[in-house]
Write a structure and sequence with these properties.
single chain; 341 residues; alpha/beta; nine-stranded mixed β-sheet; 9 helices; 11 strands; globular
């Protein structure tokens, strides 16, 4: 799939500020290509949808954290799909010791792919959009259906190699790269809930985070040696992408955002670096963008981008598609010409 199935509608045909009621969410089950069932909710506007938005959560964050945002999208004429990755929230099946092999790669090539496939089939006549929080922005590039996405909006989405961490780097290194793998080895999964750190993580996903190398190529070297290239689908994503980073977010620093955006070589990318003072608050951090207290100040940025392709805030620098990569069968890699200033 080399191009979005539908281009976004022309500006003259949309009403991005239309507000109407949202229908009650419909629970459903997605079935990934490998047969794993995923708990999901379908949010519909009261009327014809202008597009459908797949919402990818952050690592170890349940889908219901994004339900108020999904309702907001539906109130503004967009259908939305929220879902839990395998091993997380309502998609968890018993003890994670049984599912220790689950990885973040599975979340992308199976789970995100199932969500995109559902959106494409359920709404064949409108554009498919994606909103990705943290790891959710990376998973798009691992999904075989990445090419159906007309536009993507990401918040704190990064490939965060530990030297990219912001303030508190030493403390984060001890937490995520020493304590997390040690507890995972001891218990067979990472007990995040007992520590007050969101949802428990399967061992495979915890180890992927703890032992993350500087590049995705190095992370998946063992698979690529055997002819399985997880990065091949980044090239299929040709829709425009707007990435938001927060100045007080320790994971999604500009360097970490840049590290991920370099893989979307066939997309026109924009990066907006947001300071909490810009919206009159003392802090936002890595998680609060999706809190409904930002319904009137931050959420319209995503709506303007997804429906209109409009930037409400000044980006750091636009990143044009890498012409040298267009039409190439090879996977995308970070390119110096696309670095963010």
């Amino acid at each position: 799939m080399n191009a979005p199935r539908h281009a976004p509608p022309p500006l003259s045909s949309i009403h991005p500020h239309r507000i109407g009621p949202a229908m009650p969410p419909q629970p459903l089950t997605l079935t990934a290509r490998d047969g794993y069932p995923l708990a999901a909710h379908h949010w519909r506007p009261d009327g014809e949808a202008q597009g459908v938005v797949v919402i990818n959560p952050a690592t170890a964050v349940k889908a219901d954290y994004y339900h108020r945002y999904a309702r907001y999208l539906a109130e503004h004429g967009l259908a939305a799909l929220t879902y839990d990755y395998r091993g997380i929230g309502a998609s968890r099946q018993g003890s994670l010791r049984r599912w220790r092999h689950i990885t973040k790669l599975d979340w992308g090539r199976f789970d995100c792919d199932a969500a995109l496939a559902w959106a494409s089939a359920a709404y064949p006549d409108v554009p498919v959009y994606l909103v990705g929080h943290s790891i959710g922005g990376l998973l798009l590039g691992l999904a075989p259906h990445a090419g159906v996405v007309a536009r993507a909006f990401t918040v704190g989405a990064q490939y965060a190699y530990w030297p990219d961490y912001g303030p508190g780097k030493a403390r984060m290194w001890l937490r995520w790269h020493l304590l997390m793998p040690a507890l995972t080895a001891l218990l067979g999964y990472f007990p995040a809930r007992r520590l007050g750190w969101h949802e428990d993580l399967p061992a495979g996903a915890a180890y992927e985070w703890a032992f993350r190398p500087a590049t995705l190529e190095a992370a998946y070297r063992h698979l690529r040696r055997h002819g399985d290239d997880p990065l091949a689908h980044f090239a299929a994503m040709k829709g425009d992408l707007l990435a938001v980073s927060l100045s007080d977010a320790p994971f999604g620093t500009p360097a970490a955002i840049e590290r991920l955006l370099g893989y979307y070589r066939n997309s026109r990318c924009h990066h907006v670096h947001l300071n909490p003072a810009d919206v009159g608050v003392p802090g936002i951090g890595h998680f609060a963008w999706f809190n409904d207290r930002f319904r009137a100040t931050l959420w319209p940025d995503s709506l303007a981008w997804l429906v209109e392709g409009r930037l409400n805030r000044t980006p750091v620098a636009p990143l044009a598609p890498d012409d040298a990569a267009s039409g190439s069968a090879s996977h995308p890699v970070p390119h110096p010409a696309r670095r963010i200033a």
